[in-house]
Amino acid sequence: MKALKLGLAAGVLSIGASLAGAAEVPKLTPEEMKKASQIFFDRCAGCHGMLRKGATGPALTPDITRQRGLKYLETIITNGTPGGMPDWGRQGILTKDEIKLLAKFLMHEPPEPPLMSLAEMKKWWKVYVPPEARPKKPEHNLNWKNFMGVILRDVGKVAIIDGDTKKLVSIVDTGFAVHIFRSSGTGRYFLTIGRDGKATLIDLWMKKPDKVAEVKVCYDARSIDTSKYKGPKGDYMDKLAIVGCYWPPSFVILDGQTLEPLKIVDTSDYTWDTNEYVREARVASIVASHHDPEWIVSDKEPGKVWIVNYQDPTNLRIHLIDAERFLHDGGWDLSKRYFLVAANMRNKIVVIDSVEKKFVAEIETGVKPHPGRGANLVHPRYGPIWCTGHLGSNNVACIGTDPQNRSRYAWKLVANIELPGPGGGTLFIKTHPNSPHIWVDRTLSADPKLQRQLYVIDKDSLKVIKTINVIEELKKKGYRNIDGRVVHPEFDMHGKEVWVSVWGRKDKPTAIVVFDDRTMKIKKVITGDWVRTPTGIFNVYTTTNDIY
Ligand code: DHE
Fold first, then answer.
1. What distance in Å separates the CA atoms of residue 358 and residue 351, rounded to the nearest whole number?
2. Residue of the nearest CA to atom 40 in ligand 1?
3. Could you tell me the residue ranges of all domains in the chain?
4. Mean pLDDT, consecutive 10-residue segments, the chain of 548 residues?
5. Measured in whole angstroms, how far is the alpha carbon of residue 310 from the centre of its chain?
6. Which of 38, 49, 217, 294 could be stapled to 289 by a disulfide with Cβ–Cβ 3.0 to 4.6 Å?
7. What is the pLDDT at residue 23?
8. Residue nearest to atom 13 of ligand 1 (CA)
9. Is the CB of 331 under 6 A from ligand 1?
């Protein structure tokens, strides 16, 4: 059993009810309440929770917010904090009036959002092309395994770009703010999930890849995956999909060919350590096991990992593992046996053994680890290691992951690589087995200069060997009007190129920049009117095979 370290329920909650009502609660009309709820949902709920009990961001329940007062709340919303809270006012994303409204809203009890039944999901469910009418083989001559899916976040679309030619193949209407792409077991389908809980299935074999099915299974979601276990006859490939929801707190199992919703599982649960009930127990990262017909599902607030066996959805087998609170993003180690997931508000990485289905270790790595899926490599001294960046500290930390052959280093911090400049801000880190490098972004740094930088780490020396200011490099190439934060490095299938997004404002096109991994120089700038708010980039081959 995992050793219990009893502490405060959620830190900030300890401020307690005795402070409730310290300030007068400003009145809101029903229209204002509706507008404020929408702003909160769009901008704040991801970190603070719909019920505002806190997770990546602190709790904002009325006992706390009334004590803080309107002016304090307005200042924080305007200027952000060094801990990662965005400066919504300074960035011009929220107006002064919206900030005032939001501050008032925070002093009210949070309204409980609605639930969603299977019947309601089915009203949203559409199959545009039924499986029997889909191509039996690719209808184009393109190397679809090297396609890149790019999220065009604020225009509600995704782009499919041919990694070989760098040409735009298709733009697919996916709806509100897609969060991530994942690939089906065979790689033929790209699946997307929007923040609004809408999932889309895109067939890459069509002459012009397009969505063949879509469904909305919740109001707030971040994760999606598919059944990747080959089994003796490849029985499970492309058969099922799973969506992880923030609200209602649940995961939903879908048919992998049509996205028909099949089963909802509520994830509200008790915290692993203090055994307190959490209604808003949100599903964070999900990975698909290659060893068994299972998904590994992170239940954020309770701090538990659910191993969900999808062999027989009627008699669903779920195995619960105590991990650590506020689980967020994570990925496989090199052997794809161990799942390493960030408990970001505990500054830890938790290791789960997907074969023996148990907790293995937790390692303190830095302030708010944020690995994305992390970066795996074989180091000459430490053997296989997995690395993560941090939201709150300027280090990339690497952990030994081979308990069989390098037990001295297994589940220990073997390297702490310092990034230049102060603070954290790293969102994503990526490598490829064919590359000598790890690429790191700094998207959420408080410093606009660092937000535009990329760092290249040498895999052998585990040192930063190059800092690239992407916007400056673009200027040198004559692209003077392209500006924005740089986010989500992604390798092509061969491990020779690194693609990154320049994440600007919706009203101006930016670019997707392709670097030559070896020379670390710009190889191609993909731009055009359609390149609006690009965020995550996903290669079909590496996403299908969990290569990172
Ligand atoms: Fe993400 C991964 C949640 C903000 C882009 N993000 C994830 C995962 C979770 C998550 C749980 C892991 C999914 C998985 O592997 O199954 N993200 C959240 C939040 O709760 C948070 C912090 C706040 C929010 O309001 O949503 C948040 N994320 C962002 C962004 O602001 C980003 C940069 C742009 C956007 O779309 O809003 C963003 N998140 C991404 C991307 C990944 C991701 C691109 C996948 C990384 C990968 O390589 O797999």
1. 9
2. 179
3. 30-106
4. 50 35 79 93 89 89 94 95 84 93 95 92 98 98 98 97 98 95 98 96 98 97 96 86 98 98 98 97 97 97 98 94 98 98 97 97 98 98 98 97 98 98 96 98 96 98 98 98 97 98 95 98 98 98 98
5. 23
6. 294
7. 61
8. 285
9. no
In order of 100, 170, 172, 185, 269, the CA distances from 283 in angstroms are 31, 31, 26, 21, 11
Q: Which of 546, 322, 279 is nearest to 433 (CA)?
A: 546
Quickly list H helices, 338-495.
448-451, 470-476
Q: Which amino acid is at 224?
A: I
Q: Which candidate, 272, 261, 143, 129, places its Cα nearest to that of 202?
A: 129
Answer whether 333 contacts ligand 1 (Cβ < 6 A): no
Q: What is the pLDDT of residue 12?
A: 32
Q: Which of 48, 179, 390, 432 is catalytic?
A: 48
Residue 484 in contact with ligand 1 by CB distance below 6 A:
no
48 belongs to the catalytic site = yes
Query: How far, in Å, is the centroid of ligand 1 from the Cα of 213?
Result: 23
Fold classification of 30-106 is Cytochrome Bc1 Complex; Chain D, domain 2 (1.10.760)
Indicate if ligand 1 lies below 6 Å from the C-beta of 328. yes
Question: What backbone torsions phi and psi does residue 517 show, to the nearest 5 degrees?
Answer: -60, -35
Of 301, 308, 380, 382, the residue nearest 339 (C-alpha): 308
Is the CB of residue 202 below 6 angstroms from any atom belonging to ligand 1?
Answer: no
